[in-house]
Amino acid sequence: MPATGLFYLSPSNAPTSSTQDNSPLQLLINSIASKYNPIPLPGWGLAHRMFRQAPAAESSPDEPKANENDRYLQTLSLSHHPSKSYVAITDAHTNTQTRAGAPATSGLGNDGVNNDPATVVSIPSGLQSEDFIQLMTIKFSLLWTPRQVLFISNGQCFKIGDFQIRFGELRHGHGQGQGGMQHVRGVAVEIEWMESGEEDWEIVERTIGGFWEALDVQGAKLLIRIAGVEEGDAVVRQWCEVLKLRT
User: Distance (Å, rounded) from C-alpha 103 to C-alpha 213?
Assistant: First the structure.
C-alpha cells in the first residue's frame, strides 16, 4: 500500500536576495532535474477552504484568538482524487507525527495538543461540492466563519523510481482568476512511496525522509502520519492538518 509524506517550504527559507531562479519552488525543480531522470506526469492542484466555529454570542466582537477549544471545518479537493471532495472537522491541535518524532503544534499560540483525529467525510466533487461551500458561506455563516482560502494550480508531478512527487506553490487569496488577490504562502510537497507495503511507520518515515534529504532542499518538516487514524483517508487528514497550520 502506498505511503505518503508531506512537506512545506516557507518563502522565508529562500535566500535573502530571493528571485524567481532561487525561490523554493525553483530550487526544488533544479534539484530534481540534477539528481534524477524524472518521468513527467500530468499536473495537479488542490483547493482548500477553512471555516472556524463562530464564537459564542457573549464573546468579544473583535476577532478572537484561536485556542485549544476552537473547531475548524475544512473542505479539500485534490485533482488526483477527482471524483471526491472532502470535509473535515478538527480541533485547533491534532496530534501529528513529525520527522523529529514530536507532536507538531499549529503555531496558533497554544501549547496544548488534542489527540483526537479529524472527522472526515467525502462528498461528490463538482457541483455538489460547490453547493456545500455556498451553503456554509451563506446559510451557516453565523455558525462557521470563513477563515482562509488556499489553492495550488499548475502543480507539477514526477515519477522517480518507486516514488511520485507532487509539488506546487501554495497560494492564499480570494479568487483564482486574474482579478483575485493572491499571495504565495510557500511550496507544498507530497511524496508518495508507491511500492511501500510497509507497516512499520519508522521505516516509512526513514525512507520518505531519506528521499527528501537526497534532494538537499533545506528548511522543510516532514509530516508522515496522523496519530490515531487508520488508512483510507489518511492522506486527506495529512493535507488538512498541514493546510490548517498555514493560518
Answer: 21
Hunting for cell 507544498 — which residue is that? 188
Q: What distance in Å separates the CA atoms of residue 246 and residue 102, rounded to the nearest whole number?
A: 19
- Sign of the torsion angle spanned by Cα atoms 42, 47, 18, 24: negative
Q: Where on the phi/psi map is residue 219: left (φ > 0), alpha (ψ -120 to 50), or beta?
A: left
Asked if 53 and 144 touch (Cβ cutoff 8 Å), the reply is: yes
State how far the Cα of 201 lies from the Cα of 221, in Å rounded to an integer: 16
pLDDT in tens, 132-148: 989 898 888 889 998 88
The pTM score is 0.78
- Secondary structure (3-state) at 11: helix
In this predicted structure, what is the pLDDT of residue 20?
A: 60
47 pLDDT exceeds 70? yes
Q: Distance between CA atoms of 3 and 242, rounded to whole angstroms?
A: 16
**Whether residue 13 has pLDDT greater than 80:** no
Residue 136's SS3 state is helix
Torsion of CA 17, 23, 24, 28, to 10 degrees: -130
Please state, in angstroms and rounded to a whole number, the distance separating the CA atoms of residues 70 and 199: 33
Whole-number Å distance between alpha carbons of 153 and 2: 24
